Amino acid sequence: MSDLMLKLRNLKVVFPAGEGVIRAVEGIDLDIAKGECVALVGESGCGKSVTSLAIMKLLNSPPALVRVDELKLDDEELKDYSDGKMQELRGQQLSMIFQDAMTALNPVMTIGRQIDEIYIRHNNLSRKEARKLTVKALDLVGVPEAKSRANSFPHQLSGGMRQRVLIAMAFACMPKLIIADEPTTALDVTIQAQVLNVLSDMQKKHNVSLLLITHDLSVVANMADTIYVMYAGKIVEKAIKRDLFLKPRHPYTEGLLGSVPRLSDEHHHFIQIPDAVPHPMFKPTGCYFHPRCSYCTDKCKESMPPLAKDVGGREYRCWHPLNLGGGAKDGK
Amino acid sequence: MKKSYLIKRIIYAFFIFLIVMTLNFFIPRIGVVDPAERYYPPQGNMTEIEYEIIKQFTREQYGFDVSNFQQYLNYVSGLFQGDLGTSFRSGNPKVSQLIGERLPWTLVLSVTNLLISLFIGLIIGTIAAWKRGRWQDTTLLNLSTISMALPAFFIALILSFYFGFELEWFPAYTNPNMVAQFDWSWEAIRVVMYNAALPIVSMSIGGIIGYGQGTRNAVIAVTNEDFILTARAKGLSRNQVIFKHTLRNAMLPIVTSLGMSISGLIGGAVIIEQIFNWNGMGTLFLEANNTNDYPLMMGIMLFMSAFAIVANLVTELFYSLLDPRVTVGERR
C-alpha cells in the first residue's frame, strides 16, 4: 500500500479535428496523497477540464482518444476498466463537482431526487431510506431546512445553495477522491468564500482527497497543499504551496502570481502575460510558453525543456528557471 | 400559485377567442357589396323590381337587413347560445349540424395520422440520436431533406395513382356510401380503415419523418447538457441516464410541436381530403367557399380557431406540469 490516493502517469488526450489533431493533454503525471488537496492551475483551454474528465473516464470516445500508462485510485488500476465497472466506482469512490451548478443540475427534477439517485444506485436503498440520507447530506453542507428544500427544483435555489447541492452530491457516498472543476467560478465573491469553506471543511473532516481545478490563485492559496501549474497541455511546474507562491521557478507561474492584485505592496504593478494560450492545434515550437515569455532565448524557441526535478519534490519545465538561489538568475 | 396561473391562462385564451370571433365576423363583410346578391345572383328573366323584392326577402331571412353592428350583436348572442348560424344551402341546415356530421370523418384521418407519426417518430428519432452519425442517423437526415421537398398532397397523388389505379390494392376514391352505411359494425369499421389507408399513409410519411428528426435533435441537444455529465458522474447506468434524465428533458420541445399538430387536427387536410374524395371538414370548407356560403365558412373558421385556442391552452398547461420552471410568468 502506498499513501497515494491517485497515481496518474503519462496521460495523453487527443481529439481528431478536421485535418489535424488537437493534443489537449500531452503526457501529464499527477500524484494525490490520501487526504491531500491538490490544485491544478492554468488558464482556460490548457486542458485542465479534459484531465479531470479523463480521470473520471467520462470523455466520450470517439471523439476523444485517451492513453494512459497508469491510472491508479488507491492502488486499484482503472485504466482497463469497462464502462460498467467505472459506473460502480463513479459516485461511490470517485466523484466530481462541476463548475456551473445551474446547468449541472437537471432542471426538471427536484434536487432531493437527484441526490436520492446516488444512494439508490450505490447503496441499494429504497427511495424512502435514500431520502433520509439525502436530507442528512444536505444538512452537512449547510443547506437550511434540508428536509423541505430537498423538494425544491434547482431554479428555486440561489447560486450558493445550488453549489452546496453539488458538493452534497459529490460527498454523498464519502468517496476516496473528489474532483472539483472550478467549483466557485460561477459565484459571487462572498458566496465563493462560503462555498470554499464548506468544501474545505468537508474535505478535512472526512479526510477525502481533493483535486481542485481552477484558474483562480486566491482559491488555491486558501485550500491546496500541492500545486500543479498546467500550460497548453503540459505540466510546467509542480511545488508545495509555500514554495510556489514565494519562489516560482517558471516564468508562467510568476506571471500568474503577478496577475493577482496585492494590497501590501503599493508600488505593485500587474505583471501581465501578453497574448493568450496558443490554439491547441497550432502550438509553437520549442517551449510552448516562449512567445509570451520575457526571458525567452533562442534555445527556448528550438527545443522543449524537460521536466527538471528539484529538492522537496519540486518540478519545473524551463530552460531558465527563476529564483534558483545564489541571486544570479533571480528575476530581472 | 398554480391555481392563479391556470386562471390567468384561461382568461387569456378567452380574450383571444373574443378577438378571433370579432375578426371572423367582420373580415367576410369587408368589400362584400351585398351578401344577398352573392347568395342569389340575378336571373335573366327577372325584372329589376322582382329582383329587389327577392333580395329584400333574402336579407330578412338571413338577418342582413339590419346594421352591421346589430348583426354582430345578434351573431354574438347566437354564439353564446351555441348557435353557429344557418347555412345558405337548401333546407337551411344549422352550421353546427353540418360540422357535427363531417368532423368525425376528418378526425378519423387526422387523429390516426398524429398517433402514427408521433409513435413511430419518437422511436426512430431516439434510435437516430443513439446511433448518431451512423447509417440510421444519416438515413433519417436524408429522408427529412427529401420529405421537405415532397408535400403530403404530392405523395397522396403518387399513392392514389399507383396503389389506387394501377395496382387497385386500395380505393383511389372513397366510397360515398361509406358514410351513409356506417353502423359501428366490424364490417363498417373495416371498410372505413380500408378507405382511409391511402390518405393516412400519405399524411403520416411527412409526419413520421418530421417527428423523427425533431426527436433526434431534441435528444442530442439534451445529451450535450451539463446535467447529463453530472448524471453520468454519479455512476448512473446508461439506461438510467437516458430514461430519467435525457428523454424527460427532450420531451419539452416535442410537446410544443405536438400542441401545434393538435391545433391543426381539424383543418389540416383540405387537399388530401379532396384528392381521395373524403367527406370531412376540408371538403365541407371547400364546398362552403365555392357556394359563397358565408355562415358556413364563418362557422368552420370559428370552430377551427376555438379548437386551436383550446389545444394551445391544454398544451401550455401540460408543459407547465412537465417543466417546473414555467409558472406564473417566471421563466428562466
Please tell me about this protein's structure.
The complex is a heterodimer of chains A (332) and B (332). Chain A is an alpha/beta fold and 332 residues long. Chain A has two domains: 4-224, Rossmann fold (3-Layer(aba) Sandwich), CATH 3.40.50.300; 250-316, no CATH class. Chain A has helices spanning 48-56, 83-89, 101-104, 111-123, 127-140, 146-149, 159-171, 189-206, 217-223, 241-246, 251-258, 298-302, and strands at 4-17, 20-33, 37-41, 65-67, 70-73, 76-77, 94-97, 177-181, 209-214, 226-231, 234-240, 308-309, 315-316. Chain A has an eight-stranded mixed beta sheet, with helices on both faces. In chain A, strands 1, 2, 4, 5 and 6 form a five-stranded antiparallel beta sheet that branches. The longest helix of chain A is centred in the middle third of the chain and has 18 residues, at 189-206. The termini of chain A are far apart. Mean pLDDT of chain A is 85; it is low at 326-332. With 332 residues, chain B is mainly alpha-helical. Chain B has two domains: 16-79, no CATH class; 107-322, MetI-like fold (Orthogonal Bundle), CATH 1.10.3720. Chain B has helices at 2-26, 35-39, 48-62, 68-79, 95-130, 135-149, 152-166, 177-180, 186-223, 226-233, 238-263, 270-275, 281-290, 294-322. Chain B is globular. The two termini of chain B are 17 Å apart. Chains A and B meet through helix 2 and helix 4 of A and helix 10 and helix 11 of B.
